[in-house]
Design brief:
Helix content is 52%, strand content 18%. By secondary structure, the chain is of the alpha+beta class. The chain folds into two domains: 67 residues; 147 residues, Heat Shock Protein 90, CATH 3.30.565.
Length: 223
């Protein structure tokens, strides 16, 4: 639940922020010594490193604000395809530059869910960005978005043909600050899962089939 996730994040934040804060102090002390010795070039390098550390802290706090912020727009009946199209539009530039082939759901029918479009788009954008990151050096990169209806549920799946996830990475996916990305914060999927729960649904990693990774958003369908 939300309180449990917040507790995990709070513990992670202390660790993640303490690291750059300690580095900032070291760089600042060294910069002072370099300036005293007239070594302005070396001091400038340390100051540049301080800027980099503060940017990381800013990225962490900015992501946490996204998690804590409750949407101002109430949920309303939403055709799922509208959220899919919105997410793809937001990422159109990156998709075009990456050369990734996007396969959209077949047909024109769209299940309707009770959700804020902005919040559902947030989940989809995160899943699409993760897929794009995973296929950075992949030949013939491809992302498939599928829609399905099962009983009173609407299922939205995002699947890529990247390298996939190992058992350890898969087991830690929804843990705060656990990431396989060199510059990732490890909060995107945590926040996306919380949003899915806020919408009365779930976000899960689908069982692997040997190729790529697949995630499914499971929401209650309305007539």
């Amino acid at each position: 639940n939300r309180l449990s996730i917040l507790g995990q994040i709070a513990a992670g934040v202390a660790h993640e922020i303490n690291q750059p804060v300690a580095a900032i102090r070291t760089y600042a002390e060294n910069a002072g010594r370099f300036l005293d010795g007239g070594k302005t070039g070396a001091a400038s390098g340390n100051l540049t490193s301080i800027v980099s550390m503060t940017e990381r802290i800013g990225a962490i706090t900015s992501t946490l604000r996204t998690f804590a912020r409750r949407p101002g727009v109430a949920a309303s009946p939403l055709p799922v395809r509208e959220a899919i199209d919105g997410a793809l539009s937001l990422l159109s530039g990156r998709i075009r530059d990456s050369g990734v082939t996007i396969v959209k759901p077949r047909g024109t029918a769209s299940p309707v869910v009770m959700a804020s479009r902005i919040r559902l788009e947030q989940i989809l954008v995160n899943l699409l960005q993760n897929a794009l990151d995973a296929m950075k050096d992949q030949p013939d990169p491809r992302i498939e978005i599928e829609l399905a209806e099962r009983d009173n549920r609407a299922l939205i799946s995002v699947r890529d043909n990247g390298p996939g996830l190992g058992p350890e990475a898969a087991g830690n996916l929804f843990m705060p600050f656990q990431t396989t990305k060199e510059k990732g914060l490890g909060l995107g999927l945590v926040i996306s899962q919380e949003i899915a729960q806020e919408l009365g649904g779930t976000l899960r990693l689908d069982p692997g089939n040997g190729t790529g990774a697949s995630f499914t958003i499971d929401l209650r369908r309305i007539e």
